[in-house]
Amino acid sequence: MKIKFSKKQKKLLCRIIAGAVMLIAALLIPYDALPYGGMIRFAAFLAAYLAAGSGVLIKAGRNILRGQVFDENFLMCIATIGAFAIGEYAEGAEVMIFYLIGELFENYAVSRSRSSIGSLMDIRPDSANVIRDGEIVNVSPEEVAVGELISVSPGERVPLDGVIEKGRTMLDTSALTGESVPREADIGSEVLSGCINMSGLIELRVSREYSQSTVSRILKLVEESSSNKAKTENFITRFASYYTPAVVIGAVLLAVIPSLVTGEWSVWVYRALTFLVISCPCALVISVPLGFFGGIGAASRNGILIKGGNYLEAMSRAEMIVTDKTGTLTKGTFSVTGIYPEGVSSDELLRYAAYAESYSSHPISASLRRAYGLDIDVSEVTDVSEQSGGGVCANVGGKRVIVGKRTYVSEKCGCDIPAYEGAGTVVYAALGDTENVGSRYIGSIIISDEIKEDAVSAIAAMRSCGIRKTVMLTGDTKAAARETAEKLGIDEVYPELLPDGKTEHTAELKKQCSKNGRLIFVGDGINDAPVLACADVGIAMGAMGSDAAIEAADIVIMDDKLSKIPLAIDISRNTMAIVTQNIVFSLSIKALILLFGALGITGMQAAVFADVGVAVLAICNSVRALYYGRKLQKKEMLPEVGFET
Question: Of 71, 161, 172, 324, which is the active-site residue?
Fold first, then answer.
């Protein structure tokens, strides 16, 4: 593997080499044969020390002036200057060089980790090819207005959200959704910014300005995630602020008290200086935030956007999952699932209903037209009247057709209509002449929302993750809600709820969680925004979800797949395990080495090596969080529950 250093790292490497060369020269000089050998020896080792450690001395001085006294630079300066003060010139220079070697390793490991994580979100488009006056103009995405036409060539990243008006292609959406399988897109298909056009040349009609585009919102969420720190991160920050001064005081006491008893000042001052070198809390301060950053990066790789380490930590304690129904457990797209004619054929019933609904944009109307499947001659449809939430009346080929809810159709046609007791949305239909004379009931059509393909396996996977209870809150009818809950194996269902009812039930369900347990709510619609904000962790379905729901949520699933929720729980728990390992490992090794240093078993050089080793191991352990999704895939866990990486 070819190692590439940054400009800062190259400067640090130069200081290490210069200090090491001068230290070797200082060690080879025969001081006893020279006049003023003692002074020359001091000057030679001081030159090696300053060549390597001048930057550390300057940094420590600046931090002291800013009020930041107790950091690793201050500890290292005190320890090495103290070594010179007691005549351990070579050791003072060696410790500074060893410290810089450790700092180089740490800096390189951290920068590699951050670049790996950053590359996952390298989806920001550089420019957009907008078509103006028949010519292609290359401009910044921010300069393109809604409604303008842009051209995207094969291999290019889509700069803005839009709808295809010309061309056909395959799209790589892995950076957005975590899906490895390309998606086919044709005229009329909606295309999200940030995905890559893999094959054909396409032209898109821009639907959102850049600041509101998918790629802009993703980048904003990722950038803001670092500001929402987990309790563990805040604890480490507070711990370091108390730990370092305590160690300095402990070192002073170690130098003074035993020396007053034994009179061996040089021995105990040396041990105190070693104690200071060991005490640097680098491993904790660097590895813990990096662990959370890696966990957020692993989730992003799988199309799960987590807005901060605090939500990642809360997700790891998930105990109860509450979900909305439509658009969350189901696809949010209606389809005809049953046709029950009365006095006419099924084809006739469907034809009359589709023609009557031909002018309506309602999803139920669209499902009727899709089920009919044939072209509709709109010239046959006249005198259309629609009642919002009720139904439609229209003249179809010389007949008066009434389609809609039972009460609406019954009132319009003046006849009794039998009620359908099953699940699903029922569209009733009546037929008469154009004067609405002799109207009669001709049947009902059942329209249902389809359950998502991965919903059953996702609910099962949630249980395997240790989720104690699953609950569904929905505004749908009792029959439809219960049928869906039974198919999915959901524990409890509360139907026919308005948004405020969902919020009230969520607040009550939170009380059923244990002290450390957390309630997760999953929703997609604008009416779910209050509940998403009320839950301990709110998860929004990003592909179909409303802007309000995505803004209110703490976690966004970019491809609307329920199977990403147990994956998010696994990632969060793996991240917390890694963070805990780093804390326990760092503190345990640190305490052991501090004890050895105080007893004189460990010298300064060994202390630096041990401290650097702990920091590098903790950092490497943190990086594992970034690749957790890949580990699951190798274990063949993801295909079983529908996960994709």
Answer: 324
